[in-house]
Amino acid sequence: MDLCEWLGLGEAGRTLGAVRARLQRRVVREAFPEGVRVAAWLVLAGAEEADADGYRRLLGQGPASSAAKIARDAPRTFRGATDFGARVEPGAITRVLNAAMHDLGAHYVQGMNALCGVLVYVGGELLGFALFRRLCRLLPTYFGEGAREGDGLVGCAAGCALVERVLEAADCELLHHLRRHGMAGPLLGYGTLLSLGAALEPLREVVVLWDFLLAFTPAVMPLVVSARLILARPLLLRSQNPLGVSQGLPLDARACIAKALELYAGLSPDAVDLVARHVCDPDACRRLLGAKERGEGEESENLDFTASSASAEA
C-alpha cells in the first residue's frame, strides 16, 4: 500500500510537510495499517533509509565497546512474544545495536534493546537500524554521550519529574497516594521512559503507541506515562502496593493516546516548552530537576504546570 494513496494525497500535494500533517491527524483517530507503517515512521522520524553497504561496514568493525552488555540483554528482548520471535531473526538485535554504537560513538544502556526490538520488528533489520540511529540522535539527553549525570540519564530523570508535575496538576490525590506508598521519582516510570514504552505489553499495543509518539515526538512520553497512571486511578487508589499494580497493567494504547492529548491540551506554555526540550536540552532537564547548571542541591523553582483536565472519579 502506498503511503500517499492511503493518506488521500494527490501528486501535487505530496510534500513532506503535507504527509506529516496528514499522519498526525490520522493517528489521533486510528493506528497506521501495517502496509504503510514503516514508511510513515521513516517520514515522521526524519530518518534516511539505511545504506546496506554502510551497515555492513559497521558490522565489519566487530563488537562495540558495550558488546558484553548487548549480548546479555538482546536475547531477553520480547522473549515471551511469539509474534516477535516469528518475525525477527535471532541475532538481529545484537547486530543492530553493535552497528549503532559504532556509528553513534555511544555506549549501550539497558532499555535500548527493547527500543531497538520494536523498530526491527516493524521495519526489519536494515530499516530498524536507520530508525534506531535516528531516534538516538533525536533524544540526546536519553541516549547521547552527554546524557549520563550522576547515577542515571538526565533526560529520563527529567521525564520522571515531568510525570510528577503533570500528576500534581491533573490529579493531586492520586499523586499523594503514590508518594505515600513510595512511588515517586524514578519509580513513576524511569524504565518505561527509557524504552519509550517498548517494555510494556502487549507488543501490538506498543506498536500503536509508537505511531503516536513518532507523529507527535517521543518527547510526549511522560504524558503517556501520566495518562496510564490516571487511567488506572481506581485500581491504584485501592492498592497498598500501587507500584506492583502499575507494573502489571496491560497497555491500552488508544486510551493512553486520548488521555495524553487531553493532558497536553491543559499544559501551560512553559510546561509545553519543557516537555519538548527535555529530550534534547540538558539545561531544560536541570530546570525540571530543580538545580542549576551543575545539578546541585537547590530547591526546584515553582513552574506552572496548570492542566485543565480534571481527575477521573474513582
TrEMBL record:
Residues 31-217 form the Rab-GAP TBC domain. Residues 303-314 have a biased composition (Polar residues). Residues 291-314 are annotated as: Disordered. InterPro entries: Rab-GAP-TBC_dom, Rab-GAP_TBC_sf. Gene3D superfamilies: putative rabgap domain of human tbc1 domain family member 14 like domains, Ypt/Rab-GAP domain of gyp1p, domain 3. This is Rab-GTPase-TBC domain-containing protein. It comes from the Eukaryota.
